[in-house]
Amino acid sequence: MRAMRWLYLGVTLMGLAGCGSSDEFDDLKQYMGEVRARPVGTIEPMPKFRPYEAFTYAAASLRSPFQPPVKIDLVNRQRGSHLVQPDPTRVKQFLEGFNIDSFEMVGTLSNESGTFALLRGAGGVHRVKVGDYLGRNDGRITAISDSAVQVMEIVPDGEGAWLERPLSISLKERS
Length: 175
What we know:
elongated; Pilus assembly protein PilP; alpha+beta; PilP; lipoprotein; 3-stranded antiparallel sheet; 7 strands
């Protein structure tokens, strides 16, 4: 039993003797000495940031540069009427915030309350009925059939009056 104690004591002393070598960390001690010897510098001040200036996009009412220009026949051009004009007091519907050519008809629904068209565009598929508005030119849905949605837009004629322009959104098959 006494021999076992001496054996444990001997192994422990040999293990401790191996931990004491100082040659192993000389390079680390030298680097830390160099770092501590460096002069303490000043911290650079925070950069000055200019305040954000809001930008208002003013060309939203102009023609898209990705669409071909419209050729106008000045001689045979339709004249607008002051009797036809959009209602400025009407509350705008959600689908009036998007261009009408971004919509495509994908189907119809019918039930006891009427016939509805399914239009894809503006981030989803929307159910619309006769009398609903869509597009940026006060387009009102006038008729819904199995193959198309008829829309009447009110557009300016360029001379201070307004024109009614009929449009049709045809059914897109295999969509």
